[in-house]
């Protein structure tokens, strides 16, 4: 038996319970992982609320790290005792879990379970944004919201190594200091700031090449207006409120 945090139905935290479950042995292509760290992400809240539906009962959590304690048929890349991390597989709020082997990656000795469990999903997202969504190169201008958040703390140093110039938005002076320490060239402070206007001024009226917005509806219009013509606008979350229906007319000015 293993302990898990189980969600009985979509809703509030009152629907979460700490219970014991028999997870069994790994099937073909699976491993059983004794977890030493479990990541907590905003997507867990979406899933708990039912925004992203799950079959009930469910165990939340989409990333973690631990030690392989059993391997299923056909698994050749891992052995019992290997330390691995994973991302993108629901079921992480657990002492132990079954995991598709292809989801796991071996951890170097100098990467702790805590670091892997708390950053692998965001690191994958950062790679996607900087190399797939928009090919960031020297001179690329980036606007990123929540500049003191977990995703920004990985995106900004990475983007700086690629030669980007970065404008970040934050809500407080303390968060501004953190964003600057993580690589922002300039920071917009305050929820009522003229984000689009400052971004346009910073880019000599052109707008930024790449906007990364994890806030959602409260910043959507400003993000769109701040982005240059033929630029890229990536909406990667809705922490501040869900996006409403858009029409082609909303995108016309850009």
SSE diagram, text form:
Layout: E1 2-7, E2 16-21, E3 30-38, H1 42-49, E4 58-59, E5 63-71, E6 83-87, E7 96-100, E8 104-106, H2 113-133, E9 141-144, H3 150-161, E10 165-170, H4 173-181, E11 186-189, H5 195-202, E12 208-213, H6 217-226, E13 227-235, H7 248-251
Parallel strand pairs: 9-10, 9-12, 10-11, 12-13
Antiparallel strand pairs: 1-2, 1-4, 3-5, 3-7, 5-6, 6-8
Helix pairs in contact: 2-3, 5-6
Number of domains: 2
Q: First CA to last CA: what distance?
A: 56 Å
Low-confidence stretches: none
CATH class type of the largest domain: Alpha Beta
Order of helices and strands: EEEHEEEEEHEHEHEHEHEH
Can you walk through the features of this model?
Keywords: NADP, Oxidoreductase. This is Quinone oxidoreductase. It comes from Mesobaculum littorinae. By secondary structure, the protein is of the alpha/beta class. The protein has two domains: 2-119, Medium-chain alcohol dehydrogenases, catalytic domain (Quinone Oxidoreductase, Chain A, domain 1); 134-251, NAD(P)-binding Rossmann-like Domain (Rossmann fold), CATH 3.40.50. Helix content is 28%, strand content 29%. The protein has seven helices and 13 strands. The protein has helices spanning 42-49, 113-133, 150-161, 173-181, 195-202, 217-226, 248-251, and strands at residues 2-7, 16-21, 30-38, 58-59, 63-71, 83-87, 96-100, 104-106, 141-144, 165-170, 186-189, 208-213, 227-235. The protein has a five-stranded antiparallel sheet. Strands 11-10-9-12-13 form a five-stranded parallel sheet, with helices on both faces. Strands 2-1-4 form a three-stranded antiparallel sheet, with no helix packed on it. Strand 1 and strand 2 form a beta hairpin. Helix 2 (113-133) packs across helix 3. The longest helix has 21 residues, at 113-133. It is elongated, with a radius of gyration of 20 Å.
């Amino acid at each position: 038996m293993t302990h898990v945090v189980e969600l009985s139905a979509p809703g509030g935290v009152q629907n979460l319970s700490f219970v014991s479950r028999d997870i069994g042995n790994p099937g073909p292509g699976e491993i059983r992982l004794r977890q030493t760290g479990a990541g907590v992400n905003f997507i867990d809240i979406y899933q708990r609320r039912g925004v992203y539906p799950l079959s009930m009962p469910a165990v939340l959590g989409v990333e973690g790290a631990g030690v392989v304690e059993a391997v299923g048929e056909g698994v050749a890349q891992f052995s019992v005792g290997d330390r691995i991390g994973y991302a993108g597989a629901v079921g992480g709020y657990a002492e132990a879990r079954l995991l598709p082997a292809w989801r796991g990656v071996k951890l170097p000795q100098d990467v702790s379970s805590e670091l892997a469990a708390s950053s692998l999903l965001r690191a994958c997202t950062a790679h996607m944004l900087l190399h797939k969504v928009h090919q960031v190169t020297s001179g690329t201008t980036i606007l990123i919201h929540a500049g003191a958040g977990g995703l920004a703390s990985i995106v900004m140093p990475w983007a700086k190594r690629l030669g980007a110039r970065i404008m970040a938005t934050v809500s407080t002076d303390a968060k501004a200091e953190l964003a600057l320490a993580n690589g922002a060239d300039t920071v917009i402070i305050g929820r009522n700031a003229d984000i689009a206007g400052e971004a346009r001024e910073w880019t000599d009226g052109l707008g930024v090449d790449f906007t990364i917005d994890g806030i959602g509806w409260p910043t959507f219009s400003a993000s769109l207006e701040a982005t240059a013509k033929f630029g890229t606008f990536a909406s990667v979350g809705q922490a501040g409120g869900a996006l409403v229906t858009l029409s082609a007319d909303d995108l016309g000015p850009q």
